[in-house]
Amino acid sequence: MTKPYVKQTIENEVAYIEFFHPAHNSLPGDVLAELAQTIADAGTNDEIKVIVLKSGGDRTFCAGASFKELININDAATGKVFFSGFANVINAMRKCPKFIIGRIQGKTVGGGVGLAASTDYCMATKFAAIKLSELNIGIGPFVVGPAIERKMGLSAMSQIAIDANSFYPPEWAKRKGLFTQVYDSTEELDEAVKTTAEHLCTYNPEAMKEMKKIFWKGTEDWDKLLAERAETSGRLVLSEFTKEKLKTYK
Predict the structure, then answer these.
(1) What would you report as the CA-atom Rg of the chain, rounded to the nearest whole angstrom?
(2) Which of 10, 51, 54, 145 falls 20 to 30 Å from 190 in CA-CA distance?
(3) Level-2 CATH architecture, domain 5-187
(4) Which of 124, 129, 122 is nearest to 188 (CA)?
(5) Domain coordinates in residue numbering, the chain
(6) No. of H helices and E strands in the chain?
(7) Residue 83 zone, left/alpha/beta (φ > 0; ψ -120 to 50; rest)
(8) pLDDT per position as a tens digit, 43-80
């Protein structure tokens, strides 16, 4: 696999939405936009009762936003658009009336942790360590922070945000509420995801829709909040500190 993509397959009323990018599933703006739209469309598709969010590849679920795009930001407006990419996906997941199961097969960083936290039920392998690395380059996990805090609590979110150099093991993430189960292999994970998703399809769709509203109660202002957070990140990425840091990564 060398070309980025977003694809959806439907099996037994379950939509499997998969994204991929050859750079460790780090996502550029066009892939994020397509992912947000695919999730929104699945939410209105009567053939679908449950959604599974997954990524291609073996050992990385998502390495966050595209670094190549990040280093080319030269003005605040472009910065806001760039950081709005994950905001739009998170909001699409939040507004989707169907349960979204996360299938996290490997490491996840930055925006990827935000995606995992925005699923309604998240399952992982023992390889799915997590990290918020944004402070390393002079910004912060502003856009994904609300989703992570909602799922894991302020204490856990602040811990991994401050300790920006460390990967935290999936068992830690499970204890903090991000993952529901951790499996020894991708094969075991896939079997469990399939079983869980198809079992959920036997439930009343209206009941699941109403439960989803309850799960996400209190996030009604996130369209505005995440846009403001994207603006903050877009401003900070133009700072001399961050520009100098980014030069060391080129």
Answers:
(1) 17
(2) 145
(3) Alpha-Beta Complex (3.90)
(4) 124
(5) 5-187
(6) 11, 9
(7) alpha
(8) 999 999 999 999 999 999 999 999 889 999 999 999 99
